Please model this.
Amino acid sequence: MIPKCVVGNWKMHKTTADARQLAQAVAKGAGVEDRVSVVVCPPFPYLSLVGDIFRGSRIALGAQNLYPDKEGAYTGEVSPTMLLDLGCKCVILGHSERRHTLGESDAFINRKVLAALAAGLDVIFCVGETLNERAARETEGVLERQIVLGLAHLPPPSLARLSVAYEPVWAIGSPGHHASPEQADQAHAVIRRCFGRLFGDEAARKLSVQYGGSVEPENAGAFLSRPGVDGCLIGGASLHAGPFLAIVGAAVHASQTMKQSA
Model:
């Protein structure tokens, strides 16, 4: 059974004081929890602050993005080396907001994935379709394209440090559209099949696939209890300690239930 994972993505939120308060509350609330993996990804300016607070805890520090070079004349960018220097263990790449708002291509995301893994960072690789693509029944084709192009030339030894997050673009922060656990299951099955064709059935079975589409404490248990959902990538609900820790609790409960029924 793949261990459950809960990832908090603060996006472009918080001040220094807010970041300190939230990180302290999450660290205190999570305690020494080791039944699920917990990752928090603050904005770049707060990585050092939050990393210091999490030091010695079970919570891993992650980043929201990187530039695929060790150093250079890239004004405003952050390298894998810098993230490692700040104590980051992983990085989110291919997020829908990077793809659709900032125009990142599959080829550029692929460069980032390869650079992150080569540097020693774990990668949370995001894929997902828009509402128009789902309406046109293109979900499977979109997911396959993003995986094939985004994970091209991936060295097999690095597969253990890669997870995939399915984030239906139409369900992120959208009160009018919610993905069901069954829809998440179907998309995750597509992801595993495609991953298996690229890297083999064993790698597909071991792949951690997370769901990231407006997950809240009220629906987290329904998603996390699905056998094909190995964790959640949390946006808005990660901005407050109470909801985020409630989702961590739901992951613990789902993990225990699955272990007992195995």
Observations:
- The mean pLDDT is 95.
- The two ends are 9 Å apart (CA to CA).
